[in-house]
From TrEMBL:
<keyword id="KW-0560">Oxidoreductase</keyword>
<keyword id="KW-0641">Proline biosynthesis</keyword>
<dbReference type="InterPro" id="IPR036291">
    <property type="entry name" value="NAD(P)-bd_dom_sf"/>
</dbReference>
<keyword id="KW-0521">NADP</keyword>
<dbReference type="GO" id="GO:0004735">
    <property type="term" value="F:pyrroline-5-carboxylate reductase activity"/>
</dbReference>
<dbReference type="Pfam" id="PF03807">
    <property type="entry name" value="F420_oxidored"/>
</dbReference>
<comment type="function">
    <text>Catalyzes the reduction of 1-pyrroline-5-carboxylate (PCA) to L-proline.</text>
</comment>
<dbReference type="InterPro" id="IPR029036">
    <property type="entry name" value="P5CR_dimer"/>
</dbReference>
<keyword id="KW-0963">Cytoplasm</keyword>
<dbReference type="GO" id="GO:0055129">
    <property type="term" value="P:L-proline biosynthetic process"/>
</dbReference>
<comment type="pathway">
    <text>Amino-acid biosynthesis; L-proline biosynthesis; L-proline from L-glutamate 5-semialdehyde: step 1/1.</text>
</comment>
<keyword id="KW-0028">Amino-acid biosynthesis</keyword>
<dbReference type="InterPro" id="IPR028939">
    <property type="entry name" value="P5C_Rdtase_cat_N"/>
</dbReference>
<feature type="domain" description="Pyrroline-5-carboxylate reductase dimerisation">
    <location>
        <begin position="145"/>
        <end position="248"/>
    </location>
</feature>
<dbReference type="Pfam" id="PF14748">
    <property type="entry name" value="P5CR_dimer"/>
</dbReference>
<dbReference type="GO" id="GO:0005737">
    <property type="term" value="C:cytoplasm"/>
</dbReference>
<dbReference type="InterPro" id="IPR008927">
    <property type="entry name" value="6-PGluconate_DH-like_C_sf"/>
</dbReference>
């Protein structure tokens, strides 16, 4: 996620490559970005030189490492699932904290990202900068913090649910005789087309009704979708992921 945001920022000209430093404990990741963009590899001891730090490590690693990351003069922007601004501020020793929840769309400039921050983050320009950072990789939504885990459970994790649906559709296609390579491509393309159509409709049910001819093929398929409780599975997936976000953010 950190690499995706860096690429967005560079491609949109928000920062010069000379203004960006990176830290990753995996040297091959550092080498990759240094080679590709000429950004500066940094040490943890140099963190205090930064004006702002994007934290894109796993929540459990953050909870182990936060003492090493804390610098009172720095503004922090976190993409970590579950970690609230309260926990960020306490662990990092500053109230200049912004919480963001992007999704994998960031890697192609099409993320839907939730953003929130503290009063201090707003005063110091960190919140505005967070907006700019994530606008460089897609759309930004101001979401109150009490809905962040919900946003994460639906939108942050959502591409994985859609991918499972695409895979299942393709499996269905193969089951009725389509070649695998075509079935996979068709599943992806029909999700894109359906997404574009859905943005023009007031409600998804309108699109569903337009496709389903009386006594036709679609209603026969939809009957099975209802029989196998597809909707309940999708709802329960979002609930479970939201709950998991809360668990990831538990700090003592
Ligand atoms: N993958 C996704 O679709 C999304 C991820 N996120 C959040 O973004 C964060 C990053 O996610 P990913 O990029 O998928 O994870 P990732 O595991 O690919 O990247 C984390 C990076 O942190 C580095 N790292 C781990 N321990 C470190 C340490 N001690 N010092 C320095 N670097 C260290 C790893 O080498 C790795 O490059 C997570 O907190 C996740 O909750 C948020 C939204 C979507
Ligand atoms: O699975 C995760 O925990 C992260 C957060 C949202 C998407 N990936």
């Amino acid at each position: 996620m950190g690499g995706a945001v860096m690429e967005g920022v560079i491609s949109k000209g928000l920062l010069k490559t000379s203004e960006i430093g990176i830290i990753d404990h995996n040297p091959s990741i550092v080498d990759k970005w240094v080679e590709k963009y000429g950004v500066r590899p940094m040490k943890m001891s140099e963190l205090g030189q930064a004006e702002r730090v994007l934290l894109a490590l796993q929540p459990r690693h953050f909870l182990q490492l936060s003492d090493d990351l804390a610098r009172p003069s720095v503004g922090y922007i976190s993409t970590m699932a579950g970690i609230s601004t309260t926990v960020l501020a306490r662990r990092l020793g500053t109230k200049r904290v912004v919480r963001v929840m992007p999704n994998l769309g960031a890697t192609i400039g099409k993320s839907q990202s939730a953003v929130t921050g503290t009063k201090e983050a707003s005063e110091y320009g960190d919140l505005a900068f967070g907006h700019e950072l994530f606008s460089s990789v897609g759309s930004v939504y101001d979401i109150p913090e009490n809905l962040f885990n919900a946003f994460t459970g639906m939108v942050g994790s959502g591409p994985a649910y859609a991918a499972v649906f695409a895979e299942a559709l393709a499996d269905g296609g193969v089951r009725v005789g389509l070649p695998r390579s075509q079935a996979n491509e068709l599943a992806a393309k029909l999700l894109i087309t359906t997404g574009e159509l859905l943005l023009q409709k007031a409600h998804p049910a309108i699109l569903k009704d337009e496709v389903a001819s009386p006594g036709g093929t679609t209603i026969a398929g939809l009957e099975q979708i209802e029989r196998y409780t597809f909707r309940a599975a999708a709802i329960e997936a979002v609930i479970a992921a939201t709950k998991r976000g809360t668990e990831l953010g538990m700090d003592e």
